[in-house]
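We emphasize that the prediction below concerns an isolated chain of 402 residues; any contacts that depend on oligomerization or on bound cofactors are therefore not represented. The input was used exactly as deposited, without trimming of termini.
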Amino acid sequence: MRILIAAAGSRGDVAPYTGLGSALLRAGHEVTLAAPDAFAPLVAEAGLEYRRLPARAEGGGTATKRELMRTAAEFITELGRGFAEAVAPETDLLLLSTTTAPLGWHVSEATGIPALGAYLVPTAPTGDFPSVVTGARSLGRLGNRTAGRFALRMADRLYTPAVTELRRNLGLSPLAPHAMRRRQERAGWPVLHGFSPALVPRPSDWRPELEVVGTWWPYVDPARQLPEELEGFLAAGPRPVFIGFGSMAAGQGERLSEIAVGALRQAGLRGILQTGSAGLAADGDDVLTVGDVPHALLFPRVAAVVHHAGAGTAAAGLRAGVPAVPVPVTADQPFWAGRLAALGAATVPVPFRSLTAEVLADVLGRVVRRQAYSRAAAIAAQHLAAEDGVGEAVKAVERLAG
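Result of the prediction step, given as a token string:
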């Protein structure tokens, strides 16, 4: 089967599909991953064919909600232009991410190519927990469902210009995004969710076609090793603390680096700073700065992780069995931070705007020295180790597409 996976957004929105694609490849399928140009090296490393999606890789800063909405709308409009060209006529199946599905549905209609959802976040409304874009605080079953429906309507509005243009280019009659979404829901459109039920159990009120299969881990070459300098630093003293904000906080590297180093030294801990989009950097015998290092290789070697609570980073910390200090910045990050805290594997989330060296030092002291956090993280790691998210996804794809 010739499968096209379409994913766009930040690194965390794309990298897990390299693991899923690699598993589909091993199962005998031809796999192409369509994504923005910045992720072409990740796709190539996984041995998958790359196809360009006309959108830049999305990061995040500390913009207002209005600015975030405007940026998202511009990103989606850019993505919609040329999306159809990424889909080769000989494709047998489309696997669509949360970001690409509202566009891919229309391409599927125009071409007749079947499509399945392959989501990294739970977007369907449920009473079991709050919407991923409204944070971690439950509003009660009715309130949670209402917030979930509101979030979908807001997404529909963001996609309207892109969908209007895309359908016109495809020669399709006009159809609003909310109408297409409802059509898909009524038809029982299947969606596979690539996160762990240990972190987010499958909601009790979801329709049957929405499955939670387990986490899809980014592909890592089995021969890959940590850099020598990093290995030397790890061997030179007690386990350090990892601090990184992924694709978030661009332009705030100097402030965040000062906070990180100040907190580590106040708490008497060694640290590893990952540069990321923020540009973290520091020098010293007790601090090392690293670039692109697979979390799967590094996280099992640290005492704790301080991160922005992106879905992939949050899951990687749990997989390694290490406790976390979540510092959510935007979007779905407060949701994942809340899930980690609810498991007992992380401290109460520290709001990004409230982060200071004093606050971080206090929280780090607690998370590193109180064994309850480590025990909860270890228990979660056992659950994740027993899962085969990509294996279950391959079986589901073959079953649903057969």
